[in-house]
Amino acid sequence: MSGLKVWQRVVLIVCLCALTLPLWFAAKNTYRFIDGHHTLTEGYVHCDWDGRCQGAWRLPGGQLGRGEIDGLTFEDDEERVTGISLFAGADWAVADRSDLAVCASLEVVGAVIGAALVLLTAWLKS
Questions:
Q1: Under a CB-based contact definition with an 8 Å cutoff, are residues 24 and 34 in contact?
Q2: What is the pLDDT of residues 27-57, one digit of tens each?
């Protein structure tokens, strides 16, 4: 990398630092995959037309969780479904636990590919 100009080195470092963001999201999803609990919704869920669903659920120990539920569809709100199976924490929930593992895997793969492309470009420019 010694053939790179100063501004190119700065851009290289900034690009590599930016690639830590997908790794942070992957770590968050992995933590949720390990730390979450299987539960059911309390009452009805409310889904907007844009696909965002809000609801409440009860966690082990009696704690009430509330927030956005990923993976539900508008039909769950429209049909007034109760007792939907979730995988959740205190302020997050997903309809399918495997979605967390898939997202974490894709984020790690994206970060690795991005880092490889940035380093390859830097190596070719030097």
A1: no
A2: 999 999 999 999 999 988 888 877 788 999 9
